[in-house]
Known about the structure:
The structure holds 2 protein chains of 2 kinds.
Chain A: H1 2-7, E1 22-27, H2 46-54, E2 59-61, E3 67-69, E4 72-79, E5 82-87, H3 101-113, H4 119-124, E6 128-135, E7 138-143, H5 150-157, H6 163-166, E8 187-193, E9 197-202, E10 215-220, H7 224-233, H8 248-252, E11 257-263, E12 266-272, H9 287-295, H10 299-307, E13 311-313, H11 337-346, E14 350-351, E15 357-358, E16 366-372, H12 376-390, E17 395-401, H13 403-411, E18 417-423, H14 430-434, H15 438-441, H16 456-467, H17 471-488, E19 491-504, E20 508-509, H18 526-530, E21 532-533, H19 537-552, H20 558-587
Helix pairs in contact in A: 9-11, 10-12, 16-17
Chain B: H1 3-30, H2 47-56, H3 63-75, H4 89-124, H5 129-143, H6 146-161, H7 181-218, H8 221-228, H9 233-260, H10 265-270, H11 276-285, H12 289-317, H13 319-322
Amino acid sequence: xxxxxxxxxxxxxxxxxxxxxxxxxxWDSSPIDQINPMLxxxxxxxxxxxSHIIYDKLVQTDSYGNIVPDLADNWTWADPQTVTFNLAxxxxxxDGVPFTANDAVFTxxxxxxxxxxxxxxxxxxxxxxxxxxxxxxTLQIKLKSADATFFSAAxxxxxxxxxxxxxxxxxxxxxxxxxxxxxxxxFKFVSWEANSYVQxxxxxxxxxxxxxxxxxxxxxxxxVNAMVLALQSGEIDLTSxxxxxxxxxxxxxxxxxxxxxxxxLRYFYLTFNQFPNGTGNPTLRDLQVRIALAHGxxxxxxxxxxxxxxxxxxxTVVPTSLGSWHNPNTPxxxxxxxxxxxxxxxxxxxxxxxxxxxxxTGVKMIYNIDVPSxxxxxxxxxxxxxxxxxQIGVKATPRLMDSSSLGSEEAGWKHDMVxxxxxxxxxxxxxxxxxxxxxxxxxxxxxxxxxGWSNSTYDQLFTQQSQETDPAKRQQIIYExxxxxxxxxxxxxxxxxxxxxxxxxxxxxxIPAGVIPPFFYFGENSLLLNVRPxxxxxxxxxxxxxxxxxxxxxxxxxxxxxxIAVVIVVVLLVAGIFYSxxxxxxxx
Amino acid sequence: MGIGYAINKLAxxxxxxFFVLTFNFFLFRILPGDPFSLLFRGPGFSRTLVNTLxxxxxxxxxxxxQYVKYLQNTLVGNFGISYTYRASVxxxxxxxxxxxxxxxxxxxxxxxxxxxxxxxxSAWHRGGKVDIAFSTSxxxxxxxxxxxxxxxxxxxxxxxxxxxxxxxxxxSGEVTNPFALASMVDLLRHMVLPCLTLVLGLTGEYVLVMxxxxxxxxxxxxxxxxxxxxxxxxxxxxxxxxxxxxLPMTTLIAINxxxxxxxxxxxxxxxxxxxxxxxxxxxLLTRDYPVLQGCFLVLAIAVILMNFLADLLxxxxxxxxxxx
Lengths: 588, 324
């Protein structure tokens, strides 16, 4: 608590800066542990993000989530399983060798051959039957079966690697350090230290236009407090997009800093373990119980209290950031504790003598709500939910766990309820819906899904949408899938948060408009290619910043001051007592 | 202090290391969770691939077999490959260890020097204002939570003194020579805050132990005798008091230097100092067993080694032990 209080202290303005040709980004989530894009395990790890700056893909997204050309200029579908790409003629590798279709073919064949050791990349070539270079700049890919998500899932992940380097490596690919990584991307690798930083230089020959600054640095911070401070002191120019809402006031009060938000590609949910072969509380397998519990959650208040308004209430498992895939009309379970109580009473879950409801067979409605320890806001949410439910005779206990233990518990189907989050790295709803299919939700040990719910109609519809290439028809099915999940309360979706970013608007300009959190997700690079340093104007801006900020600096947060004053008083008191006691004893 | 004594100590050392190896091996595997099942939280994962990863790293074999392999490998100096970094554990450990030693050694040495000096003054002027001021302030700082103290220093240092926020060096996008004067100055600037945090927290220990040891010595008869013989205060202090107070201080210093290798996790976290403490913590979160085992082994060896040296030093400092 003390730390967040202290963050409220408005910072002194940064010192006057000369126009900067170095853009620094702070990173505080998963580690930067690899510069080999094929070996990254974590799909959203720092390593993954860095590789999407150094390497290019066949296609990429713009800041609105539309698929746009990258190494491929355009493409045509001959049939639902055959697509031909016309590739850029002027792309070059960072060592000067020209890029050709053979590199793309090599990449696909190399990943296919090494699927066993490329856990992440291997998945994305699963559906590719063959890849062929029709000539130096024409690539033809044949799929095994029609797939509506081939572009938005597979191609957005598959970075293209240089054949002339990777083919010549004779050692074991599972420990290939790939130093230096050579790509075609807008930035060239300079140096790195694992989990500390990566230094990159702008690629002046980048085929889609060189970046507007010289050097790019990505620095890792182990605590978000340090990262925010680094932004305020000018050590970085952009933070990673998951700032907690509590830091926003201190950042917005600083005129050098601009805070902007985008809809995050993630949502938070409460899952009920309904797996018949699991050891979760069996009352959760009763649909009436789940409906009643859903009515006992005040999502508006959660979004307000836990995310300070930086979150939208969600009634479906597809977050609002996915645009038209998000079904705005899924049935909502309004917060109504009286209705919850009535549903439970009617279903035979009467309140016992200890104040806790029990099923007709005597199973009490006592649950654990497990929360991963890296999401401290969500623990608060779990406490609030437990509070509401306690009013209707349901006893829920929030428990914090580290995510590895929690993952293991879910894999064993031992949980009652878990409050967790899903985030996707492609703008397609299939991922968010896939975890409710029977094949993903009833594995032993558990795989993707953690609700244990299963429904054959859902499975059929899911398969249908994955092969449906007409977007309007696919959207229909996607909406229907969301409705089914809501009707069966497989999950209680809670809210989707805003991705909050901090940016040094006194040193750089050019944040593009858009709906995707910049830089962080699937190598969406429009921010890095658009920002440019503010020129000589920086000198005068900084000086006027100094004067205005020092005037506003007088408004120090009273709570912080008060708490510091209390500490000082206590210290003085203790010292005084000590001193007087010593005086007494030494006199005797 | 014959050869027999040294061999005895060596045998004990080896036995302790072996015990630590075994204990750590099983401890990490008893922890719930495993390195790869958390990968399910990302798109594109399947049970088959987790199985493949497990067999690639030998995690699907019976536990006793894994243990035997681990012992065999460790004996020849092969600490394995990290699951997350996909590089040899040694190549990851050594630079981080160096970073920690740079920071902690400096902080420990400063703490010891300052602590001894303050302890001396406190003991000499026992009951006086200086004694109370020193004792109270160091006790207070010693009992403060490191995380809180570090954060406060971070805020004050960055905002009011313009010190760097994190890491070991400034990154300007240019490649720099790490041994140039400018780089050295840069390193010192980065060290100020974490070092200060550590020194403020560690000094209290040395002050109290030094003061206590000295006070014990002051009450001994031989001190009174020496004073009666007319020996000056300075000589009294140096030749008689300090010599004897050195014994408990040696133990404390040896233990702390050994533990310093474990890294100061809290300080390294706040200041993102790329040390071995932080490495251990991150490896724990991702259940990176080879790195964890490597870190704990390094820590164990450091502590055991320092204790061994302390034993030998004791024998030198205290003649009574030599003949024992």
